[in-house]
From TrEMBL:
InterPro entries from the UniProt entry: Serpin_dom (IPR023796), Serpin_fam (IPR000215), Serpin_sf (IPR036186), Serpin_sf_1 (IPR042178), Serpin_sf_2 (IPR042185)
Protein name, entry field: Serpin (Serine protease inhibitor)
Pfam family, one: Serpin
Top-rank taxon, per record: Bacteria
Transmembrane portions of the chain: none
PANTHER family: GH10112P-RELATED (PTHR11461:SF211), SERINE PROTEASE INHIBITOR, SERPIN (PTHR11461)
Gene Ontology cellular-component terms listed: extracellular space
MF annotations from Gene Ontology: serine-type endopeptidase inhibitor activity
Family: Belongs to the serpin family.
SMART domains linked to this entry: SERPIN (SM00093)
Domain Serpin: from-to ranges: 28-402
Originating species: Akkermansia glycaniphila
Length: 402
């Protein structure tokens, strides 16, 4: 009986932009599935998950490939965004291949140049795990440690694919630390706690309706990124964080569960329209500081989203190895960090999948400040292209308790 070989997939945060399938939204679907399964604050990196799967895609075939393509149908443009964004962004790819696994030349040619590295999984899986964890830690400037938990690498592991990205950007309009003070935040169960609340009054791009309130916080373009764009004469994209507050009486979980791709796109399209200076009201914004790290077992999430074959003996990754070694994913992990303060946003994430060898809103126009208080659970999204409402987010999350 043929046995399938352990394959591990690991990725850290990244971002993507595309005009893609508007009937689906990979990031939103990932957020919805994660929110169902996880308590507390949520932080995911849709790009990290998608970027990792992109490293496997060239080696997949038949139904396994079809399921991956369907899942990623709204994430085209993934590979080119780093060349366009003016955000401060560091990204790298690495594919660790067992030293005795003969790699298919076509697969090696299809993955990022210089990404393939030989490693000895068979004789020292513990050391191999340490090597990969150390690479991820270095790539994320020590923000993500131990993406691969104990026991995730075994003697029959054959491949680990890693996409690592590090993100740290300042607000275009920073909050004054002196204006931050303890204020009430009402949790989902009605409990009230004091949290550090930041304050800013400015002509923000925002939208307030009966169905939601949303505000866009743009990031300052990075000087080095702009210089690089000018050298290659490529178009720029600007990034921002979008915070979305459900209406009074609607929990954030109910709100997220009822969102779909078209509704989320419409929220972002309306923000784009109101970005015109004459349409932006003065907003008295109150937003809590928050920082947290999240570890997620993504196996069941990816299965629920339709990627079923890859985690079964029916998996077909026959394009990876020239000797057709059967490969099957056995696990998927993601670790994500987000930190939002007066200065800006710092974030990092890592995703790992292990395979084994074995068996219409109303515009707000007012002469008085529009008060927008994020003093109860809300959704946040970090995007690298604020002008493209269908681009896959860099990060997404839910603040249930700052």
């Amino acid at each position: 009986m043929n046995k399938t070989a352990p394959l591990l997939l690991a990725a850290t945060i990244g971002l993507t932009t595309a005009v893609a399938d508007e009937t689906r939204n990979f990031g939103l679907e990932l957020l919805q599935q994660t929110a169902k399964a996880q308590q507390g604050n949520i932080c995911i990196s849709p790009y990290s998950a998608a970027g990792t799967l992109r490293l496997l895609e060239p080696g997949a075939a038949h139904e396994t490939l079809a399921q991956i393509k369907t899942l990623l149908s709204s994430t085209s443009g993934l590979q080119t965004l780093a060349e366009k964004t003016t955000l401060a962004l560091e990204t790298a790819n690495r594919i660790y291949v067992d030293s005795q696994l003969p790699l298919n030349a076509a697969y090696k040619a299809a993955v990022p140049k210089g990404a393939v590295t030989s490693i000895d999984f068979r004789n020292n899986p513990g050391a191999a795990r340490d090597t990969i964890n150390q690479w991820v830690s270095k790539a994320t400037h020590r923000r993500i440690d131990n993406i691969l938990p104990s026991g995730s690498i075994v003697q029959n592991t054959r491949l680990v694919a890693v996409n690592a990205v590090c993100f740290k950007n300042k607000w275009e309009m920073e909050f004054l630390p002196d204006n931050t003070k303890p204020e009430a935040f009402t949790l989902t169960d009605g409990t009230v706690k004091q949290v550090p609340m930041m304050h800013h009054s400015f002509r923000f791009t925002c939208s307030k309706t009966e169905a939601y309130s949303a505000i866009e916080l743009p990031y300052m373009p990075d000087d080095k990124a702009i210089e690089n764009r000018e050298k290659v004469k490529k178009p720029w994209t600007k990034g921002s964080m979008i915070a979305i507050l459900p209406p009074e009486g609607v929990s954030v979980d109910e709100f997220v569960s009822k969102l779909d791709a078209s509704k989320l796109t419409e929220i972002r399209r309306h923000l784009n329209k109101t970005r015109i200076e004459s349409k932006r009201p003065v907003v008295a914004l109150a937003l809590p500081k928050f920082k947290y790290t999240m570890d997620i077992d993504m196996r069941q999430t990816l299965i629920a989203l339709g990627m079923k074959n890859a985690f079964t003996p029916n998996a077909d990754f026959s394009g990876i190895s020239s000797d057709k070694t059967p490969l099957q994913l056995s696990a998927a992990y993601q670790k994500c960090l987000i930190s939002v303060d007066e200065e800006g946003t710092e974030a990092a994430a890592a995703t790992a999948a292990v395979a084994f060898w074995g068996d219409g809103p109303v515009e707000m126009r007012t002469d008085h400040p529009l008060v927008l208080r994020f003093d109860r659970p809300f959704v946040w999204i970090v995007v690298a292209d604020r002008d493209e409402p269908t681009c896959t987010p860099l990060f997404m999350g839910i603040v249930r308790e700052p």
